[in-house]
Write a structure and sequence with these properties.
By secondary structure, the chain is of the alpha/beta class. Helices cover 48% and strands 16% of the residues. The strands form two sheets. The protein has a five-stranded parallel sheet with strand order 2-3-1-4-7, with helices on both faces. Bound molecules: BIS(adenosine)-5'-pentaphosphate (AP5). BIS(adenosine)-5'-pentaphosphate binds next to helix 1, helix 2, helix 3, strand 6 and helix 8.
Length: 211
């Protein structure tokens, strides 16, 4: 089995691609959704995570590594590849991840997008509060009336897609996550995808890497 790590700044399209891969039967783990589910539980941990996520900061490494490694362990019962969106995303998390998976093959897939495009994608994003499906008011609109194509629920704006939080997330990404792209490149594990093209072109490239 292999670990496919989807890397890229906020708005690069990781969630969109992972959703398509899931539909095709790939096994996926979506870190942002795992954290948002924890927030919805209203637990003490969820409250702590909510304060961090809503400001656009990163949840501490020790907490994320423990949470994600527990989930990964539960998921390695078969030989199927696991695609992970959003973990690891700091140098400390990469160290934690590599310590636990030194024997498995790892491919880091980096979705590369310019900053001005990221901002347009994030400010126009809408999500279904029920099934979490992701839309864009211009690039990927729902079929009717800003309601989810699957659940018919009115779409909402993610709390961390407010303009000032977007700015902070992009700057946190530059400082804390971009260095891991170089780290994977130096290890010869990185594949770069031009993610400024259409959703289906990017999807084709990712599937080619997974072959
Ligand atoms: P998370 O949910 O993972 O957020 P993110 O990494 O900031 O990424 P996004 O979900 O914003 O963007 P995306 O790349 O998935 O883009 P999408 O496909 O939606 O994490 C949220 C928060 O949780 C973090 O800020 C942090 O606080 C915390 N967290 C998560 N992981 C953590 C970790 N490991 N450690 C610590 N904290 C962690 O696309 C965006 C928009 O563009 C959509 O509207 C979509 O329709 C559109 N779009 C997508 N592709 C295209 C395309 N090719 N062309 C045109 N439009 C497109």
């Amino acid at each position: 089995m292999r670990y496919i790590l989807l890397l890229g700044p906020p708005g690069s399209g990781k969630g969109t691609q992972v959703e398509l891969l899931k539909k095709e039967g790939f096994k996926v783990l979506i870190t942002g959704d795992i954290l948002r589910n924890e927030i919805e539980k209203n637990s003490l941990l969820g409250e702590r995570i909510k304060r961090i996520v809503n400001k656009g900061e990163l949840v501490p490494d020790d907490l994320i590594v423990e949470l994600m490694e527990t989930i990964i362990k539960e998921d390695t019962s078969s030989d199927k590849d696991i695609i992970i969106d959003g973990y690891p995303r700091t140098v400390g998390q990469v160290e934690g991840f590599l310590k636990n998976h030194s024997d498995e093959k790892i491919i880091a897939v980096y979705l590369k997008v310019d900053k001005d495009i990221l901002k347009k994608r994030l400010t126009g994003r809408r999500v279904c509060p029920v099934c979490k499906r992701v839309y864009h008011i211009e690039y990927n609109p729902p079929k009717n009336d800003m309601k989810c194509d699957v659940c018919n629920e009115p779409l909402i704006i993610r709390k961390d897609d407010e303009p000032e939080v977007i700015e902070n997330r992009l700057s946190v990404y530059d400082k804390q996550t971009q260095p891991i792209v170089e780290l994977f490149e130096n290890k010869g594990l990185l594949r770069v995808i031009d993610a400024q093209r259409t959703i289906s072109e990017i999807f084709t490239d990712i599937k080619e890497i997974l072959m």
